[in-house]
Amino acid sequence: MLPVRAATIALQRAQMQIALAATRRAISNAGPQFDDISTVNGAPRYSSPWNRWFPHDPIPFSPKLGPYKVTCEQFQVYHFCTCGESRNQPWCEDAGSGTACSVNPAFKSERYEPRFTGSKLLCGCKKSPQGVMCSGTCGLVWADVNIVSACAVVLCSSFVGSIFLSWFIHP
């Protein structure tokens, strides 16, 4: 009787581990309706904690985890790609139609008209709360994707900062 009970417990444990792995995948992925890589330009899609709470919001592709440095002319109207699938990033392919994006209809291009001529830093991860302008969210998305590297960067910068501050503050 004892070997049968042990086999039953082992089988239940294996089934529980399979169920837990499936729920972990369901939590970490945005859902089955989203592809992880764009078929248009090869950009990856990174889900955020926002998408775990609101799984029906469309997730943009992130063609670059850093800002685009572009030169813009004063009062010229540009159309910023919000879906991340445009081939001529950071600008949208359907320049100024005002309707849904031709590549991904869940998104709409964002109108951008700079007040001054010069180089601008535009969001490459498509998750900036400021819309077109880069706010440093790309760094947070990078840290969310590369957890071990981000921890190493924080550890090293904390160590260097503590050495530097103790050198200045210590009598």
Can I get a quick summary?
With 171 residues, the chain is an alpha+beta fold. The protein is 37% helix and 9% strand.
Give a verbal description of the structure.
This protein is an alpha+beta fold and 171 residues long. It has a domain of 106 residues. Helix content is 37%, strand content 9%. It contains 4 helices and 4 strands. The protein has a two-stranded antiparallel sheet with strand order 1-4. The termini are far apart. 20% of the residues are buried. About 6% of the residues have low confidence.
The level of helicity is 25-40%
Strand content: 5-15%
> The biggest beta sheet, please?
2 strands, antiparallel
Count of individual helical segments: 4
The H-and-E topology, N to C, reads as HHEEEEHH
What is the residue-mean pLDDT, rounded to a whole number? Answer: 81
Shape field:
flat
Low-confidence stretches: 24-34
Structural classification: alpha+beta
The number of distinct β-strands equals 4
Distance between the termini: 75 Å
Strand order of the largest sheet: 1-4
Radius of gyration: 23 Å
Key phrases:
171 residues; alpha+beta; two-stranded antiparallel sheet
Q: Topology of this protein?
A:
Elements: H1 2-28, H2 49-53, E1 68-72, E2 78-80, E3 110-112, E4 118-122, H3 137-145, H4 147-169
Antiparallel strand pairs: 1-4, 2-3
Helix pairs in contact: 3-4
